[in-house]
Amino acid sequence: MAAFPLLLLLCSLLLAASTAADQCHDDDHAALVAIDTALGSPYHFASWTPDSACCDWYDVDCDAESGRVIGLRVFQDTNMSGAIPDAIANLTFLQTLTLHHLPAISGAIPDSLAALSNLSQLTISHTGVSGPVPSFLGMLTALTVLDLSYNSLTGAIPASLADLPNLSSINLRRNHLSGTIPSLLLSKSPDQAYLWLSSNNLSGAIPAEFAAVDFAHIDLSRNALTGDAACLLGAGKSSLQHVDVSRNALRFDLSGMEFPENATYIDLSHNGIRGGIPTQVANLTNLQQFNVSFNRLCGEVPAGGNMARFDRYSYLHNKCLCGAPLTACRQRPINYLH
Ligand SMILES: *[C@@H]1O[C@H](CO)[C@@H](O)[C@H](O)[C@H]1NC(C)=O
Ligand SMILES: *[C@@H]1O[C@H](CO)[C@@H](O)[C@H](O)[C@H]1NC(C)=O
Ligand SMILES: *[C@@H]1O[C@H](CO)[C@@H](O)[C@H](O)[C@H]1NC(C)=O
Ligand SMILES: *[C@@H]1O[C@H](CO)[C@@H](O)[C@H](O)[C@H]1NC(C)=O
Ligand SMILES: *[C@@H]1O[C@H](CO)[C@@H](O)[C@H](O)[C@H]1NC(C)=O
Ligand SMILES: *[C@@H]1O[C@H](CO)[C@@H](O)[C@H](O)[C@H]1NC(C)=O
Ligand SMILES: *[C@@H]1O[C@H](CO)[C@@H](O)[C@H](O)[C@H]1NC(C)=O
Ligand SMILES: *[C@@H]1O[C@H](CO)[C@@H](O)[C@H](O)[C@H]1NC(C)=O
Question: Which locations, inside or outside the cell, does it occupy (predicted)?
């Protein structure tokens, strides 16, 4: 007889306990409500209602122990519009912030985000955000990954990014950035470094200091960079797999240089590179993509090794390259030293 009410009591106790565990901290709850309000209560946040625990809300991630909100990941909504809400900065325990593919989100990256001292991964990509890459990012010392790609950011890359001790990945591709590349960018990277700066309007030289950075992937393509790429080539770059410096204004002599031994992807196309192709390229067993087209190279294309992988489209439009897969060299060796 007494078993039934007891069971009910037990059930409601269990329900209360699980709700408490999923309920985020009051301050985080208030911040989330303020974010929702600032964005005009978009349909995207339809699950953000008082009758469900805020750790269960769509896009919200809580730390299991503390119940604090540590992640906010808002993806893929062409309707959501307005500026990035300052209220995000009130999620003081935030470690991951992702705003991705929200093309109607606009305005500048707000200064308030400087307060997020625990932020480790910041992604604001494929949005309508404009204004500068803020220099306050150099104060977010916990940052490991910064992705501000596919926005409309202008101005220079702040040198303060070089101060970040744990930052190993920077993606600023497809913005309207100008000026030079900060010389110490990623010089403190504790791990293999990843850098995407392609499709901007960056000028000046590739920093010589890059020679000391342990890059795994570097893409500087489609800018207005000048000088040489010697700091990315050369022996001892055994981590470097992907090098793309295509479509710049680099002018240097490639003869006698060495490619990174483990490279899988090398694109030097559309520059003003002269000299010959180093025969060592034939020794790169992992190389899948090789493009030196639209330069001023001359002499015989190296043979042997894996060179049969590359057709004439790797060598188009140079000064006087010859040999398979291009037409045979007339005499060997061609005198291109004048
Ligand atoms: C975007 O707005 C349109 C028109 O108001 C609506 O049909 C659609 O469901 C909305 N999409 C999202 C993801 O909110
Ligand atoms: C952040 O929290 C503080 C203190 O709770 C509050 O006064 C402020 O209005 C909040 N900021 C925003 C933008 O919601
Ligand atoms: C950052 O997180 C740690 C725990 O991981 C916490 O002690 C600290 O208060 C947090 N910082 C801020 C500003 O909330
Ligand atoms: C950098 O990363 C290390 C290892 O993960 C961590 O112990 C350290 O606290 C981090 N530094 C900062 C400033 O967050
Ligand atoms: C790129 O920068 C140069 C100056 O360095 C400027 O003259 C040019 O207008 C810029 N181009 C674009 C597309 O912003
Ligand atoms: C690069 O290649 C060398 C041999 O040339 C090898 O010992 C090394 O493990 C490779 N490094 C990476 C990161 O693949
Ligand atoms: C290519 O590899 C072979 C065999 O390991 C070596 O003898 C030769 O010196 C290498 N060539 C270059 C240009 O590095
Ligand atoms: C190399 O780049 C040129 C110019 O962008 C392109 O036409 C060609 O197809 C590329 N070659 C390969 C092998 O990808």
Answer: Cell envelope
